[in-house]
Input
Amino acid sequence: MDYALEEYINAHIDPEPEHLYRLWRATNIELLHGRMASGHLQGRLLKMLVQMIRPKLIVEIGTFSGYSALSMAEGLDDDGCIYTFEINDEIEDFAHRWISSSPVGHRVKLIIGDAISLLPTLGLQFDMAFIDGDKRTYLEAYETVLACLRPGGVILADNTLWDGHVSDSAYDHDQQTLGIRRFNDHLAADERVSKVILPLRDGLTLIKKNGQ
Output
């Protein structure tokens, strides 16, 4: 969407909390690829989905600056918890600083390392997951998360349209595009789940694990 439409939408939804607004600004000033942070619209959607689903345990793959984790933490009850994994240890200090200083930061556990290998070792069953890590390993992340998700649980996968590259033959040799395509193709045929792609920002796929 263009800037004017995005600004119109942001003016007609719940406001962005001050802490997240300052985090968004700091992310774009201090970190490379600041646009990877969820931002106002997606952050409010994440909070609302958590309020609707009412999970106790959430796992996130791809913390980045912590914006999405804190958005989801807003929607949690006080006994809820988010385990968020970030493989890039260079942004650990930045993410930890903003998470720990947030009014809802006590609901977030930041883990630095590879979620695909570390998540199964926690021995936990999750109610909800948000996948927003390395696009080249989206399918592996999905299978790892699905194995730890309760029946009826929900997975959100971000960037599943990848700036439209998923349907553009010019990107047939781009490894991140190929990773997203591989995930999308696998998911489309996966009868263990129900799924829908929303054309929000860069594409957001909602997935529900079948069963109760």
User: Anything to note?
Assistant: Helices lie at 3-11, 18-30, 39-53, 67-75, 92-100, 115-118, 138-147, 175-188. The first strand starts at residue 57 and ends at 61. Residues 39-53 form the longest helix (15 residues).
